[in-house]
Amino acid sequence: MKCVMCKRGETKPGVTSVLLTRDDFTFVMRDVPAEICDICGEDYINGNIAKELYHLAEKIKDQGTLLDVRKYQMNAEHICSSIS
Question: For residue range 59-80, what is the model confidence (pLDDT) as tens digits?
Fold first, then answer.
């Protein structure tokens, strides 16, 4: 797809890191599948993956965790169920 940020590059499959923060809580997910612009590096994450990451971050935050860093696993349901 054409990059909406630089409007010149094309995106290609790759991975990125996602950083979510709220108040004193920080959540980092590494190696998240994404489309990456070949010119500016802007990354685009699938909406379903983003939704799963937001839900996971909320669960972890609700447990009182201040910092959590994980590596993305293709089966995100496994990630979510591993903290239940």
Answer: 999 999 999 999 999 764 544 4
57 touches 17 (CB < 8 A): no
CA distance 22 to 7: 31
Q: Which helix (H) or strand (E) holds 67?
A: strand 67-71
Stretch 19-23: mean pLDDT: 96
| Dist. CA 30–CA 71, nearest whole Å | 5
CA distance 14 to 1: 13
| Token digits of residue 8 | 């010149």
Of the CA atoms within 13 Å of residue 47, those in its CB half-sphere come to 0
Q: Are 35 and 1 in contact (CB under 8 A)?
A: yes
